[in-house]
Amino acid sequence: NSHIKKLEGESFRSRSAFPGSRKAHLVITNRRLLCIKEVEILGHVTTDWDCLYEDFTRHPAVVENTLQIFVKDHGLLKFHKKDGSGQEMLRKIQFSDAESAKRMCRAINEARATRQQQKLVKQASLKLSMPQAPS
């Protein structure tokens, strides 16, 4: 049983156990980053938080063994700190080692780059399919 709504055209790319939790996972798709948790009583899987790549304000970063995710502040995410401007939220995810954090950071950056490429191709094809006005 799952309570995770799949987005249009969304496909799985990668996952990792969420540090410090046996029942949670970070999931990378071609559209977003999710933290999913298994609910003990029913065995359901629910989304704890998620963020679209379009909402990222900058590339994820790794400081020692901590993955940092920067996203627009919509007031809905379970992210902890704001920067000084109040427009950005920061999520810090501490892994047991730096290599795990770097691996997830690379996977997120690859998924974001692929998503950006898909959007550019779609925009270009829409422009080409638009009827041209006679000159």
From TrEMBL:
Domain Intermembrane lipid transfer protein VPS13-like C-terminal: 10-86
Matching Pfam families: VPS13_C
Superkingdom of this protein's organism: Eukaryota
Protein name according to UniProt: Vacuolar protein sorting-associated protein 13C-like
